[in-house]
Amino acid sequence: MSLEKVFGLAGQHAVVTGGGSGLGLAIAGCFVAAGARVTLVGTNRGKLEAAAAGLGSAAGLAVFNVADLDGAEAFAAELAAGQGPASILVNNAGNTVKKPLRDMAPADFRAVMDVHVGGAYALSRAFLPQLAAAKGSILFTASMSSFLGIPRVIGYAAAKSAYVGMVRSLSTELAPEGVRVNGVAPGWIETALFRQATATDPARRERIEARIPIQRFGQPEDIGWAMTYLASPAANYVSGHILVVDGGALHSF
Q1: What is the per-residue pLDDT across 30-48, written as a single tens digit (0 to 9) for each?
Q2: How many Cβ atoms are within 10 Å of 242's Cβ, its own excluded?
Q3: What is the pLDDT of residue 196?
Q4: Which residues carry out catalysis?
């Protein structure tokens, strides 16, 4: 078998939540380069249209709020009818509230958990018949906060830690149906959001970079290619794994 077939995604249809920008868009771009069709999912139609146009004819879009847990089944059915059944689902949509615990209201915490954990649960369940029919895979975008104690983001840390448990549990439960489940945990990646967050605090940016053994920040495509590998036939015996893509930061001392 050729390398193109082993590591490629020809004939696959990937649904990428949070696909209009940042890591989601980079993941979708790598999938398209590997031969897949993609559907970008988000709440901002204008952003999705611009992103899909940039990816070309292999990209479509669908407007949906992943926090609408009760609407997930209807959304999955509508998407399959309009754009074809999915063979890959990427649970990437995310949000965060950065506050100390004393100031984080229950609504703040719920808002983060609803998007990450609730949304991933509901969409994984809703798309499961399609994924099982295709012997496809579910992918999760985890985080350094899945493993490290990062302060003032308790909701985000709880949600991303939950992703690790979801990957482990679902990989075991869904294996008999031929569905693989994995995740990627990005380190510090040069996205527009990260640049914005560190633009006014160069000392913080320097501290973060100093703890990365490779001595640079990652690029969005580093995450996209990791996801591509996990979705490809090359990883057909890989399930229940969180692939950390962080330049060695997690294990540095």
Answers
A1: 999 999 999 999 999 999 9
A2: 16
A3: 82
A4: 156
127, pLDDT greater than 90: yes
How does residue 165 score in pLDDT terms, banded at 50, 70 and 90? very high
Q: What is the number of alpha carbons within 13 Å of residue 203 lying toward its C-beta? A: 0
| 16/38 Cα distance (integer angstroms) | 7
Distance CA 228, CA 82 (A): 24
Question: Widest CA span of the chain, in angstroms?
Answer: 57
Instruction: Say if residue 105 is exposed, middle or buried (CB neighbours under 10 Å; 0-12, 13-18, 19+).
Output: exposed
Mean pLDDT of 211-230: 97
Determine the straight-line distance between the first and last CA of the chain, rounded to whole angstroms. 41
For the chain, what percent of residues have pLDDT higher than 90? 93
To the nearest 10 degrees (0 to 180), the angle between helices 154-174 and 119-134 is 20
225: left (phi over 0), alpha (psi -120 to 50) or beta: alpha
DSSP codes of every residue in 81-142: HHH---SEEEE---------GGG--HHHHHHHHIIIIIHHHHHHHHHHHHHHHHT-EEEEE-
pTM over 0.90: yes
Whole-angstrom distance, CA of residue 196 vs CA of residue 209: 16
Percent of the chain past pLDDT 70, that is, above it, reads 100
Q: From CA 187, how far away is CA 36, in angstroms rounded?
A: 25
For residues 252 and 7, give the distance between their C-alpha atoms in angstroms, rounded to a whole number. 30
CA 145 centroid distance within chain: 14
Q: The tokens of 67 are what?
A: 């926090």
Domains, the chain, ranges and CATH?
Answer: 3-245 (3.40.50.720)
